[in-house]
Write a structure and sequence with these properties.
heterodimer, A: 377 residues, mainly beta, Elongation Factor Tu (Ef-tu), domain 3, 3 domains, 8-stranded antiparallel beta sheet, 36% strand, globular, B: 217 residues, alpha+beta, 4-stranded mixed beta sheet
Chain lengths: 377, 217
């Protein structure tokens, strides 16, 4: 029996969870917030702060994912602050196993507010964070949305959250929602890039595609489309020859809440998204209406990597110069199925519903992972 | 040595099932999806129906995807039937009851010729021969009604491949006691390793046919 201890530092993004990839088994994990403890480190000035979590500890053998044993600063007096100890019930640590991903508890949806983005209202506190991936289902009055996975782009309150689904014109509905991941952690397929359901597509030059789940495409990627007839835009498929419609990504905004991919395609004269011949099901420019149900979802399909030499019309210079991305690896995929630990974000305190380890400030943290190693002589 | 022989057998299965899982996850992430819509269970996607199989095959054939298996000619055998040229449908073993209850489904026992069958093969319908595995792809709670979605991958010829690093294809490694525990020579070890990646080479030649179950578990 022996023990291995790994340590390191990271700087968080304000109000955003942090994913730390770790290969080893985690028997204990602990964090110290150096910045809020008054220590200057990593180029960030120390600022001893009242009512902030400065230490957090987790043992996955005896504690539930999403929680943490924390120590929080009391009121600062001079250069010292007392410590208060407690259990953080939400937005704590979650040990992530890529091969055995957990699904969150089912939360009832009371209603949603239709619009160009959709605000969902739950019957009980949902516990979601910005960047979480959630799946809605059982929407009896709006079945066309059921089964969709989406990234949470805003959290309005403990019982409301927003996604990029354009539900304009839809009838509100009760249903269920469950958390299935987070944009920071690898998806269950363990490969990059992967399919993404399309939220909407513009008729413009260049064509802009918005995705429901934060994507990980980059300029030079080549994509194709799986575009069911109920979503219009037959130009993006070829039902006669079967030849793929391929497009090269010229820019991508992977930021949660934007989630757009711009491709080198002039779609000005293409069909309009979500235009179909189903009576009452067509909803041009938005998501189809209930009569269009059941249906397949429109999907952006990764198709490899291209070079960037022919995109000057779209303002894209070949990079790296002078020959652009010649060394392409067509149809490449990367396996990103690694393990790790997700550190939750909230208000940086132990508050009962809004609390979380990472707060609204940019801080430097020291982490320590302990592995108890069983080995033979 | 009998223990080692047994371990080798189990390790071999472990290796191949791991390869299956890697290929499965790769297809799950990148094969163009279409949902079954012609089943009768009221979910979305619906349960698998013969028409959904035909639609998937139509999509592949229009894209000039090549069949995997040649046809099996009919023969003068009671209860047997010819089998069309086919794509393989790679799915989960939980689909077996749905397939059995589908009108027109032919179990492998009713093929006109049962030689050269794969152990995983369950039967055929509409130019698809189904290979079922316990590591088949399932997306949990993802349907409109919150049920599990079963992903059936239909690859045509040359639609995906496997790349392995030089010298790092599957290797079985045995370490005798002199190496595994040199001090007291208490134990020996056996294991396998590989460095392989699966990859879709043509997204037009592969389809992910998504369905739910009609026959509950």
């Amino acid at each position: 029996m022996s023990t291995q201890i790994c340590t390191g530092f990271f700087t968080n993004v304000a109000s955003t969870p942090f994913f730390l990839p770790l290969e080893q088994q985690i028997n204990e994990f602990s964090l110290r917030n150096l910045t809020r403890s008054g220590v200057t480190a990593g180029g960030i000035a120390g600022a001893l702060t009242s009512t902030r979590i400065v230490k957090a500890w987790f043992n996955p053998s005896v504690m539930s994912n999403g929680t943490a044993l924390i120590e929080e600063n009391g009121t600062v007096v001079g250069t010292l602050a007392p410590l208060n100890v407690g259990n953080l019930a939400q937005n704590g640590f979650t040990v992530f196993n890529a091969a055995n991903q957990s699904v969150g508890a089912v939360v009832a949806i009371a209603s949603f507010t239709p619009g160009t983005t959709t605000v969902w209202t739950t019957s009980t506190p949902h516990g979601f964070q910005i960047g979480d991936t959630v799946r809605v289902y059982g929407l009896t009055a709006a079945p066309q949305f059921s089964g969709l996975a989406m990234t949470v782009t805003a959290v309005g309150s403990t019982t409301t959250f927003t996604t990029l689904l354009d539900s304009t014109g839809a009838t509100t509905s009760a249903g269920s929602v469950v958390r299935i991941g987070n944009f920071l952690i690898p998806t269950r397929t363990g490969v990059y890039p992967e399919n993404r359901v399309i939220a909407k597509i513009t008729n413009a030059n260049p064509m802009v595609i918005t995705l429901l789940v934060a994507q990980n495409y980059f300029p030079g990627n080549v994509v194709t489309f799986s575009m069911p007839s109920k979503f219009g835009m037959p130009q993006l498929t070829n039902s006669l020859s079967g030849l793929p419609f391929q497009a090269t990504v010229i820019s991508a905004v992977n930021t949660v809440g934007v989630q757009t991919v711009t491709v080198a395609v002039d779609s000005t004269n293409f069909g309009v998204f979500a235009t179909n011949s189903v009576v009452g099901g067509s909803n041009p420019g938005h998501w189809p209406l209930a009569p269009a149900f059941p249906m397949s979802f429109p999907t952006l399909v990764p198709d490899g990597e291209g070079n960037t030499n022919n995109l000057s019309a779209f303002g894209v210079l070949p990079t790296p110069l002078p020959y652009g991305n010649q060394d392409v690896l067509s149809f490449a995929k990367q396996n990103n199925g690694y393990n790790g630990i997700l550190i939750g974000a909230g208000d940086g305190t132990n508050a009962s519903t809004t609390g979380g380890i990472i707060g609204s400030t940019i801080d430097v943290w020291e982490w320590r992972a302990i592995t108890s190693l069983q080995q033979f002589p | 040595m009998p223990v080692l022989n047994s371990a080798v057998s189990v390790l071999g299965q472990s290796l191949r099932e791991t390869e299956d899982q890697l290929a499965r996850s790769m297809m799950e992430g990148g094969a163009p999806p279409i949902s079954c819509t012609s089943g009768t269970n009221g979910d979305s996607p619906t349960n698998l129906s013969p028409l959904d199989c035909s639609k998937a095959v139509r999509l592949l054939r229009t894209a000039n995807a090549q069949f995997i298996m040649d046809l099996i000619d009919g023969e003068l055998k009671f209860g047997s039937a010819p089998v069309r040229t086919c794509f393989f449908g790679l799915g989960h073993t939980n689909l077996s009851a749905d397939l059995d209850s589908m009108a027109g489904f032919i179990n492998v026992a009713n093929y006109a010729n049962t030689s050269n069958l794969l152990q995983a093969e369950w039967g055929t319908i509409r130019n698809i021969r189904f290979l079922l595995s316990s590591v088949g792809s399932v997306t949990p709670n993802a349907s409109a009604n919150g049920q599990d979605i079963y992903n059936i991958f239909l690859p045509g010829q040359e639609s995906y491949d496997m790349v392995d690093l030089d010298g790092y294809s599957a290797q079985f490694i045995y370490a005798p006691p002199e190496i595994a525990s040199p001090r007291l020579r208490l134990y020996q070890t056996a294991g396998w390793k590989m460095a392989q990646v699966f990859n879709i080479t043509n997204t037009s030649w592969i389809v992910n046919l998504r369905c739910t179950l009609a026959v509950a578990l």
